[in-house]
C-alpha cells in the first residue's frame, strides 16, 4: 500500500463548466508528480480537490487510505486528510497578523496540541532548513516574496505532512526569487517527500519530476517520465503546448 | 435687530456641577448599550453571512428593522409600548440601554460582516489546508485581521450611540440633556447651559476617539 493518492473517474463542474473530466491518477509514496497545462486547464483545481479545498461531483478520491466522497457524501475524513497534506499557494497566504515564527507554530499547537516550547523549536529548525533562520521575529510583509514563500513551505512542513501540494508556488514571484524557492522544493524532493506540483517551471519539472502530467481542458492527455514527455510528446495538444512554452 | 445678549460665564460655570450629574447616566447607557450591541453585532453579523438561509434571514431582518427605524421610535416603543405586552413597567435606564444595544447592534452587524468579508479567501484556505477546523480558522486567523479593520467604523458607531443617548431625555432618564433642561427651567440660561452640555458631549466623544486612535496605532505596529 504505497499509493498515497488514488483518484478514480473524478469529475468536477463550476456551474455548467466541466473543469475535470474523468481524471484517473495515482501517486506513489515518495513520488514527485508535476502537473503542467495551460491556464484554465484545471490543473490547480485538481490538486485543490486532493485536500478538499474544492469539492468534486463524481468519482472517487482516497488520500493515504482515507476516502473523501464527492459533494454531498461522507466528508468525515476531511480533517484527517488535511492533517496529512500540506499545501503551498501561489499567493503564499501567510497570516499577516502573526510573526513568521507564530505563522509556523499555529497549526501544530491548534491541531496537534503541540506544546509551545516544542512548536517554537520546530519552527526555528524549519526556518533554518529553508534558509531564513534569522527572520523569525519579522512579520510576513517585511519579507521578500521568495522569503515569504519559503516561510509558507516551512509552515506546511511543521505539520509533518505525508504529501505536499504546490499550487504554482513561483508564479507570483519576481524572477530573481524563483530559484531560492525551487531550491527548497528540490531539497524536499531529494529527502523523499511525496509532492504534487502545479508549475510553469519546465526546467524544474524536467529535473525533479518522477512523472509529468499534461492536462488539457480538464483531461489528462499525456503522462510519463519527464524526458519522454518533453522530448517526445505523443499527443498533439502536448506538442503544441510545449512548443509554445519551451520556445522562449 | 440689536441684541443685548452677553454670554454669562458665571451662569455657565455654576451649571457644571448640576449638569455633571448627568454624565454617569450618559456613560452608563452608552457603555452598557454598546457592549451588548457589540455582542449582538458579532452574533447577527456572522449569522448574516451564514450559508444557511434560516440563519441568514432572521439576522438580515433584525438588521434591516433596527437600521431602518428611528432610535427615538425604538426607545418610545420599548418604554411605553412593551410594558403593555409584559404587564409591568420598564425602568427608563433599562429601556435606554436596550435601545442603544438593539440599534447599535444592527449597525455593528454590518461592520462585522464587512470586516469579515474583506479578508482574502486565501487566508481561510491556508488555515483549512493546515488542518484547522472552520471554527479555529475563523477565530485565530480571520477574526483578528477583520477586527483590526473594524476599529474605525466601530469608533464611529460608538460616537453615534453616545450622542443618541441624548434622545432618552424624552423618557425621563437623568442624562446630560435632561439635566440641562431641568436646570434651564429654573435659571432661564439656555444658551450657556446647552453650550456646556455640548462641551461635555465633545469631551466624552473626543476621549473615545483618542483611545481608538491609540488602539489602532498599536494594531498597525504589529501588522
Automatic annotation (TrEMBL), chain A:
Q: Which InterPro entries match?
A: AAA+_ATPase, ABC_ATPase_HisP-typ, ABC_transporter-like_ATP-bd, ABC_transporter-like_CS, MetN_ABC_transporter-like, P-loop_NTPase
Provide the protein's localization: Cell inner membrane
Q: Which superkingdom heads the taxonomic lineage of this protein's source?
A: Bacteria
Q: Which GO terms describe its molecular function?
A: ABC-type amino acid transporter activity; ATP binding; ATP hydrolysis activity
User: Where is this protein primarily located?
Assistant: membrane
**Has the keyword Cell membrane been applied to this entry?**
yes
Q: Which key words are in the record?
A: Amino-acid transport, ATP-binding, Cell inner membrane, Cell membrane, Membrane, Nucleotide-binding, Transport
Tell me which family the UniProt entry assigns to this protein: Belongs to the ABC transporter superfamily.
Instruction: Output this protein's name.
Output: Peptide ABC transporter ATP-binding protein
- What species does this protein belong to? Marinobacter fuscus
Automatic annotation (TrEMBL), chain B:
Show the stretches that span the lipid bilayer. Answer: 25-49, 61-82, 193-215
Annotated ABC transmembrane type-1 domain residues:
23-212
Does NADP show up as a keyword for this record? Answer: no
Q: Which PROSITE patterns match?
A: ABC_TM1
Topology class, membrane? Multi-pass membrane protein
Instruction: Check the record and name the SUPFAM superfamilies matching this protein.
Output: MetI-like (SSF161098)
A GO cellular component term found in this entry reads:
ATP-binding cassette (ABC) transporter complex
> Which of UniProt's keywords are assigned here?
Amino-acid transport, Cell membrane, Membrane, Transmembrane, Transmembrane helix, Transport
Q: Which GO terms describe its biological process?
A: amino acid transport
Question: Is Transmembrane helix set as a keyword in this record?
Answer: yes
The Gene Ontology terms for molecular function here are: transmembrane transporter activity
Major location, coarse class? membrane
Cellular compartment(s): Cell inner membrane; Cell membrane
Q: Name one Pfam family in it.
A: BPD_transp_1
Relate the protein's function as given in its record. Part of the binding-protein-dependent transport system for glutamine; probably responsible for the translocation of the substrate across the membrane.
Q: Which family does it belong to?
A: Belongs to the binding-protein-dependent transport system permease family. HisMQ subfamily.
| Name of the protein described by the UniProt record | Putative glutamine transport system permease protein GlnP
**Species assigned in the record:** Marinobacter fuscus
